[in-house]
Amino acid sequence: MESVRHYLVSTFGKGYSYTLRPPHEEGETLHVLVNGPWQGTVYLNPYTGVEQGRRGGDEGVVNFLFKLHSSLMLKATGKAILAWIALAYLILLISGLVLWWPKRWPPSLKIELRKGVLRGLFDTHRIGGAVLGLVIAVSVATGAYMAWRPIGQIITAMAGDKVVKPPKVKPVATTIVPPTLDEMVAHAQSQFPDDPVGYIQIPAKADQPIRIRMRLASDPHPNGRTAIYLHPQSGEILAVDRWDEIDIGARLNSYIYPLHTGELGGPLLEAVVFLAGLALGMLGVTGIWLWWRRRN
């Protein structure tokens, strides 16, 4: 890891922060998220440290779709807009369920396709929203929660918790020889020797701690939310924040993220989330079509 850090600093210079993601499976490269004047991902051989390639944050269809999905390409402003869009969707869902709610049960879930396009779209919109609306609502709400941090902060405040913040770094004697990154990671991992490292975060400034994210067995988050902070010069452990002991707003992220992606429930939930995403697009198209036809 120390050789990797030296390579990154010599390649990009000062003013950059790095997030190292060790391989999770055999044959994977070491991913390094680079944040600074140049932003992107560098892929390195985990055994030799030799660069295998790099991709800028704005390159490729996947990066474009991710930025569009997570922030509408508008950074913090887009995240706030997405939160309000999610609220609007929840209002539409509730009002739609009220309009659909049958007087007799069990309700008819038949989609009539033999009585014209308008009737077919109406049934598809009405029944699709009723059957998959709750799943879509969960996906939308969890996405908004991750995108806009004030939601978690509000929940923390309502619960009477204090937001857990990274510890401050105090200056040390300049004569101290700083430990290598490998030694720091090993020191951090000694706190949880049976659990793997999720991320290694190296800040751009010397007055910020190095953060090691651990994936504890009890943590449902695939990358782990337990954080160990180390002094960048002395390697001293400054704080250990277990995922199940931090403030409620941050702790919920361990469930929110895998619930949003479907990983929390395995392949079955991932398939349901995929279908819910298709259904969300279907509801939007059929809803606009029905509104336009009635308007004209």
TrEMBL record:
Give the superkingdom in one word: Bacteria
What residue ranges are annotated as transmembrane? 81-101, 127-148, 268-292
In the UniProt record, does the keyword Nucleotidyltransferase occur? no
Q: Does the keyword Membrane apply?
A: yes
> Which UniProt keyword terms apply here?
Membrane, Transmembrane, Transmembrane helix
Q: By its UniProt entry, which InterPro entries does this protein fall under?
A: PepSY-ass_TM
Task: Give the protein name, as stated in the record.
Answer: PepSY domain-containing protein
Organism the protein comes from: Oxalicibacterium solurbis
